[in-house]
Amino acid sequence: MNVMKLTTKAQFTLNKPLLDHMGAKAGDHVMVKKQPDGSLRIQPTNNFVPLHTLQGCIETDLNHSDADIQQAIMRGYIKHGTSGLENER
How high is the mean pLDDT of the chain? Predict the structure, then answer.
């Protein structure tokens, strides 16, 4: 277990062994996510790509309205439920 002291600005520094374990380095961004049990999950964003940045990067001849997409999502929920979504929350 690692114990860190908060500064007067409520900041703390992760030591090098923890950064190495996460695969993070100086200048990288990290994502902090609150967990349902009250703990925090810290992970590097080096493999994280915001979804909005991908808009238009794949050319396709498919044209679907928002209503078409919503109906497809609803059919998927009806057929498969929410199994497999637990890791997405």
Answer: 80
Predicted structure pTM score: 0.45
As given in the structure block, the two tokens for residue 47 are 């493999």
CA-nearest of 30, 35, 70 to 46 is: 30
Question: Comparing C-alpha atoms, which of 18, 16, 15 is closest to residue 5?
Answer: 15
Q: State mean pLDDT over 50-77.
A: 79
Q: What would the DSSP string read from start to end of 7-20?
A: -TTS-----HHHHH
**Start-to-end Cα distance in the chain:** 26
Residue 18 to residue 4: CA distance in whole angstroms: 12
Mean pLDDT of 39-55: 77
Identity of the residue numbered 33: K
Whether 69 and 75 have beta carbons less than 8 Å apart is answered as no
